[in-house]
Amino acid sequence: MQQTIRVAMLTHNYYPLVGGSERQLMSLLPLLAERQIESIIVTRHYEGFSRYEDVNQVPVFRLPAKKPLASAMYTANSVGLLMKQKNIDVLHAYSLFSPLTTGVLAKQLLKKPIVVKVLRGGVAGDLYRMQRKRLGKTRLRWFRNAVDRFICISSEIDAELDAIGVPAEKRVFIPNGVDVERFRPPSPDEKRKARLDLNLPENAPIAVFTGRLVPEKKVDSAIRIWPEIRAQFSEATLLIVGDGEMRARWESLAGEGVVFAGSVEDVTAYLAAADIFVLPSATEGLSNALLEAMATGLACVVTNVGGASDVITDGVNGRLVDPNEPTALYNTLQALLANKDNIAQLSEGGLQKILSDYRLTVTADRLRALYEQVLNQKSSNS
Predict the structure, then answer these.
(1) What pLDDT is stored for residue 382 in this prediction?
(2) Where are the domains of the chain?
């Protein structure tokens, strides 16, 4: 029987404040539990939330972190909590910011190994932002020496860590995964029902975006070209699923055929209703929304940022477009909508890529192996 490993997950946000990273963690925790990983969540407290609760049988500690000293408060309170948790084996930080600062300090006090998941690469990514912070380069040098393993979810992040001197033996590639039982291609009847239930046109081509409506997602790129798409494909619908600070602004730009669904608990019906997934982001880590869309059998059109090129081979299992070329998104969508056979080909290619390389169960197995590795290394060094 496997040894039980107890892991403290340190993260800025957690349920009910969920973006891609938080949803990935929530999906993984039951699978980790099946692999004898007992987890606790250490996150920030926000007004209106409980300071402590069990979420799906996982203890969640929400600790005070009030501005202007939010990061310092979170770190101090988290280290104090972890000092009282006598049975923690591994510390796992999410991002290079206050969760990792907390984790490294706790490592030094508790003498436990620490791993960190770097959430995003490129412009506005973890390393880019940290290098521009006061004392950021000093902190990165500290992290480089103190962290046992850096989890890379994309080749881009791996290259960035290499560039700042993180040795290859400290970098491990564990991309995000997707639940292929929950996200799967719908039957024709299921697609028809999803469109009927969501009041969407039964026979029109439908493109969907799912995610936070924040500036870096650049959903306005798709909204602005939609009148030209509609001029050629009269009932074509752009379905935008999610909420965020840019929603009101982007709704004001929307014309005929653009539908805002708002925030939804479960995106599966919206993906089932669609034919194409669109992700025009300026920056990403490895998009969970992209993996979910590919698993659902959608033809995916995404900007070539973050981990997109790790998952998609252009023209084989999706389309990659230049984020700096204004007409690229329009030209690619126009060509795809004009060729249903190409949509079917990309859909099948995307699904097969997910089934072979990006199952969530594989991610859970890799994390279990990583925790065992750093614990064995600690034992051999003791």
Answers:
(1) 64
(2) 5-177+360-381, 188-357
